[in-house]
Design brief:
6 strands; alpha+beta; two-stranded antiparallel sheet; elongated
Amino acid sequence: MLKCLEGKVKWWKIVTDRMHILLSEDNCHEHTPGVYGESDTGEIEAFNTEMPCPVTWDYGKLPDHELLNVSRFIIDCNVRGLITIHNQYGLSAQSFCCDNGGIVENFKEILKLRGYAE
């Protein structure tokens, strides 16, 4: 269902309790779980309290030959490189386009599990 509001609206998606991603800035957006609108006056409108399904990563899909690249990208704060690797190997059902707080943490966890980090 398409939801439309008056004036300039920022549409946000709830990723976690502490992280929300800006989806678009227009009057209308598909009314889906975890998405809400913020008016230009800062008021929250059309708040949908249903949380989206959490993103689950399959760490086993990352080939060992990419671990050095992952380590370098983390050290260099190269989130774009991490996103590229994530999407290339389909490490989760979600395809990321931009900075996401969970990306770095998940890659750090992979490095720990594989013995490349403490």
